[in-house]
## 1
Amino acid sequence: MIVTRTQKAGFSLYAGLVLLVFYFPLLCIIVASLSKRRFFSFPYPMADMTTKWYADALQSPQVADFIGVSLRIAALTAFFSVVIGFFSALAYARYRWRGRQTFQRLVLFPLFFPQSVLGLALLMWFSFLHITPAWWTAVIAHTVWITPITTLIISIQAYGQDDSLEEAARDMGATRLQILLRITVPLLLPGMITATCFAVLLSWGNFALSLFTTGADSSLPEWLYARMTTGYQPLVPAVGVISVVGAVILVVVLFTVVAWNQRRARRLTAATE
């Protein structure tokens, strides 16, 4: 198919509009975070630009507390959702058993729940059990919603892996634990790292579930929303920009590890052939 210059220009224009829609809100946040003015306005004079709000955000004990709560929730959510997702993916990607299709549907079912409805349901469940909501109940809520996603990601990796190495190790007398730790986990490690990345990012920025389940331990998204509605100052978008930069760094680091692991796996495969 021959693409004309007009078509190329149209594709480039469309791609540019899509990128503008994606990144224009972030650009607005960056501009707002550099303003001395209490309320957002653009354009503003160069004399009104300042990085004061970034220094205040990095030095604020209150912001540090909210970031700490969000980090605890995101880290534990990623751990539990990846562990559960790993074994769930193995259960229906590697084995054939009665009820396998039903199990697969039940695992993925929470993914289709609106987060506000799921958060309300979990809050009512905690109240029924006389559990006071705190940051660790938010971990449970986030894990319920994110585990189907990690299961999907890891299962894609599991479906694409040849199980002949595991069978060969079994024939040579390796135990199930040895096969799991030395063969299965290394083979599925890229999928697990990718799932961890998604779990951390989805938990870090989750507002709806946190609003219902954190109780007095508010997370960073809750604080950002509260400060946007009452008591706004450019400190709020500055914290948002710092949060985005941290997420970008995390993604780059994790995908660098994935690329390194894949190169290492190819070298090992080439060495054994």
Note: The longest helix spans residues 235-272.
## 2
Amino acid sequence: MITSILNQLFGSKNDRELKRLWPRVVEVASLEQHVETLGDADLRAKTDEFKRRLLQGEGLDDILHEVFAVGREMSKRVLGMRHFDVQILGGIVLHEGKISEMKTGEGKTLVATLPLYLDALAGRGAHLITVNDYLAKRDAQWMGVLYSALGLSLGVIQHEASFLFDASYEAPDPRLQSLRPVTRQEAYQADITYGTNNEYGFDYLRDNMVLSVSHRSQPSLNFAIVDEVDSILIDEARTPLIISGPTEESTDLYERLDKIIPHLNAEADYTIEEKTKTASLTDAGNAKAERLLGVDNLYDLAHISLVHHLVQALRAHTLYHRDTDYVVNDGEVTIVDEFTGRLMPGRRWSDGLHQAVEAKEKVKIANENQTLASVTFQNYFRMYDKLAGMTGTADTEAAEFAKIYNLDVVVAPTNQPNIRVDYPDLIYRTVQEKYSAIVEDIVDCAQRQQPVLVGTISIEKSEKISGMLKKQGVKHSVLNAKFHEKEAEIVAQAGRQGAVTIATNMAGRGTDILLGGNPEFLFKQMLSQFPDLSEADQDHRLKQIQDGCEKEKQEVAASGGLHIVGTERHESRRVDNQLRGRTGRQGDPGSSRFYLSLEDDLLRIFGSERISSIMEKLGMEEGIPIEHKMITRSIENAQKKVEAHHFDTRKQLLEYDDVMNKQREVIYERRRLILADHDLTEEIHASIEELVDGILAVHCDEEQYEEAWDIDGLADACQSQFAANIRGEGGDDASVFRDMGRDALREQIVEQMHQAYAQKRESIGTDVFRQIEKMIMLRVIDAQWKDHLLGMDHLKEGIGLRGYGQKDPLVEYKREGFDMFANMMTRIKSEVLEHLYRVQLAQGEPPPTLETERRAPVHLSRGESEPQAQTVRREGAKVGRNDLCPCGSGKKYKKCHGT
């Protein structure tokens, strides 16, 4: 109430921001007349002038108005598009490192060009992040003409490919026109780089697994604009990016447990919680499972993994549904993204859940993967010096953007007033009644030639409505989000007369739906059918298409514009707003209506008793909907509860990942220092002294008398760690060491180890030994970090139980995680020195280099296909992990060359 009164008196925070920014927009506009007089060459030369001025001490803010004016003018000349004032405003917001909320159809693709141009002038790189490869490629080909005219290079990062924009390049594949293939490094070295969130994140992880600095591709993270920022930083934030390698565990367990689930009864043997997608066994269920598995106690330490996998099998059968949460294609289980409805090939659920679903569907069960490297989008994008974002729907999540990413949201006004009509929800008793009403609405629109876009939340529901429309003889298109490029073409035509398009939520997001059709897409279709048309004929046909689209637009507008039908409310209000936002662009007419039933998941799981009581008071008859603003408000309140729950989940994920993030930064910084070409002798000496101190603390405690010192144990420990005999060839008596005192003893041992190390380096050769140092350090760090990640995963799994002991699980996780990390760092130093003191080159063996090191195949867990591993045939007998290493060191293989 107080906030409302203050807003009326002083304006909202957003109003005040717009008032602050508008004079800057006016300043850019005031320069337009001058830059219009410049020739093309003079306009292009402005880029070099701006770069010189930055080198002379001016800041980006000092040149912003001129840069934006030049960018706007060049866009007019080469693209035929002039930035509206509200687009200039959006560009300033992005440059300031904030989120610009701009409604669908306001031209966000063009908006991003100005802040990218400005920040790229500093020479430190500027990145645009999109949600899929198609949009990254499309926008780069579209805007590359502008950047090229301004004298800037543009790189494009795609899955397993990378390009530089080159207008003169004739690509063999017309879809890659003007995109010249280059290395990953070259694409990142461009002034501006376009790519997807997954590719940027995986490149960061891969860069921190390389064995040579020349293999790193990603430069410093300077400035990024995240397109569809809510989708990337909110919806996808709960699932981390993971690079993993296969384990050797058997898959038989999953099949064995899968056969048990049908024998368990709901409520009696287990309970499920749909809100959190969790399942648990009852006491009776435990007893039945023990009997079926033939074990005495499921919770015995020897069987603890059985409980975990049994619960995962329960979840697979009761909470994960085919054609809603996943599909089965060609004998593989493919996840369906819960927010976009898109298939996510290559992405797998973790902790054995994916294998449990595979066992349920009787398809081949893949081995579990062990994490080699991981990072959340939350922590990755917070590494950028400056982060900005744009979307049509951010305001509902403004609090989360501010708290997690320190990003303010500025809602930009539309260029034209929004005249879309959002009708109140219609609520039915049953799903079947709801579907009947939806089909009736669609048929009515089709008869009046009004285009309809039907948004569903799953492939299964898309196909259900499609089947009902076929029975009615209504021609329609169905998008199941398999092919982004084809999907964009269909969505682009969803505004044509009489078009009926059924799509999972946000399918084709990033593609404008133009009333009357998109002339650009129609022209491309025509060219694919008649590729040999002369240039004059092409111009003539294009004019015909444009005129036809304009005429059809007027007719569609007269019928009411594009009508949006929502088949149910999503858990997030933002996703509903995204669906509504597909219509009413740039002042076009349009309408939206959501259809609900009491059997919908949102109302059934999260709906309050208030909704039910309202229904009873108003009375519900079969086939008769209830349309009431009070119910719509109650549904929005239910959505707010779900949003708050998901926010807590993401916040908790971040709090736990922050612990790992600090550790990750230490390890990755250590790797970078090792890869850099500098002498590691000082660090080796420091490690030697630290390990000597540790050995002395165990065998020659300062608190003990010298007579109590364990000199034999001290000698054995030094022999094991450093391969050095501290007693010398004659075997000095223990009293000699006791008599010299602890400080002198320490100094003597340290000096002896330093000398032994220097001799080892000299015997092999300084340059070669430096390579060996780096190679061994990287091998040991990577192996220990991999095991540490597994240990931290196990710690996180069980840490929640500490709450029963009145302890804060997060505090306990931080404390134990720190202890585990400190122990790992000590193990790294110990193992590195064990190897370095014993290393020797066989006669005739070429010196090793980091360039020749090879990595095992890895698996990327988000939307990535697994690289095909080549079969490597071993010559001779296999060396067991506990056998003596064949190198002659006297150590077990697993502690030596089997690392």
Note: Confidence is low (pLDDT under 50) at residues 863-879, 886-899.
## 3
Amino acid sequence: MSLQFNKNCGGFMKKYEIIYVVVVYRNTEDLLPLIKSINKFNLDFKIIVVNNYYDDESMKKCQKIALDKDCDFINVPNGGYGFGNNRGIEYANQNYDYNFIIISNPDIEIKKFKLDAITELDNSVIGPIITTKMVKYQNPYWLFNNRISEWLIYKGYLIKKRMIVYLGIALNKVIREIFLKYFMKSNKKQFKVFALHGSFIIFPKKVINKIGLPYDEEMFLFAEEAHLAHLLKRHGVISHLTKSIEVLHKEDGSVSVSDINEKNEVRKSVLLYYKKLKDMS
């Protein structure tokens, strides 16, 4: 950590190599293991814990863990995943200078982190190798702009047909698995992809300055990865998957599509995303 003069605020701000933004909703059990895994790598960092408010009990528990571990803590209304992350990024921009900001789910444990991997890609958004407990890979979210899978998922949610949704998801998974068999055995350290999984994603400060707040707050729960990919594309920013960072995502990554109805937040986000995508075209 160092002090950096910031002409916008007319004073000095603490500067860190990395700022972590971690949005928590109700479940605080995974937060402490994440913090411990970050500390293992002895990097210059600050963690901002954003509590998406559920009740006073969970808020106080989250706050205690954060402050005990020298993290900053902010409490915000539960406006969804993108809302919480945007508030964390705003807080970071107002209070710190930094080179990179990492958006991490609380149910992540970092297994490998080589700082050189991100400093040499400081014009790109960067994603790690993400595995689940079942040793399934979650990155890349989309290897390329897969309009067929996107349309199948959208159509399935629109007409409430699970099998069509499953077909779109399965097609994307097959493409991912074929790519990963090549990539993991190759000598390549990184690879250009279209969209990265949102559970752990790295933004250089210069990219944040270029695109602004990266998340669409109307999308409460889902589809933020694809929307972000198109936002980056419009700004000419590339996404890279790197082997030099590896994380464990404790959730299995599956999203239930068994309850497809008007109140389903996943369905609403997907339909909203596809409408916005057509409007951008």
Note: The two ends are 43 Å apart (CA to CA).
## 4
Amino acid sequence: MNFPELILLGAGLAMDAFAVAVCKGLCMKKINYGYSLIIALFFGVFQALMPYLGYLLGNTFAGFIGEVDHFITFALLSYIGGKMMYESGHSNDEGLVCPVNFKPDYRELFVLSVATSIDAFAVGVTFSFEKSINIFKNISVIGITTFIIAFAGVIIGNTFGAKYKNKAEFAGGLVLVILGIKILIEGIL
């Protein structure tokens, strides 16, 4: 996977984190850059860690599924992307409840970080199918991309509200589906 594709993959995977970060920004009366960095750091670290764990698991089984790896990659990316696109049109933020004095809840951030990076775990499994891969470069790009996008999400949420959350989630899902199709075509040809 080349660098521009990694950036696109990272951006696509980061859209769930972006959506949650927008909600966190909505809860801040005034932007707090320290809290924004903490939120972005949680999402960035987990978005980098989960593909690595998926890669390790995938390496365990890569010998058994090497002939069909591109079909598996296509199916996983298409499912994740399709789910994100579907959810972008079916989310309901009316129930968003913000505490009076916003402070990051580290347990909640942990749970949200894991929840928004499960799709990155599946992508990590697909990394194990690639012949020559620099997994540390891949997870670094994904983590840094997510950190930047999540940080921007907090600021956007604080500044503009939830206006762009669903559009970003749809775009991220579309990117994942397109990458899945590209990998499938390359694997067949």
Note: The mean pLDDT is 83.
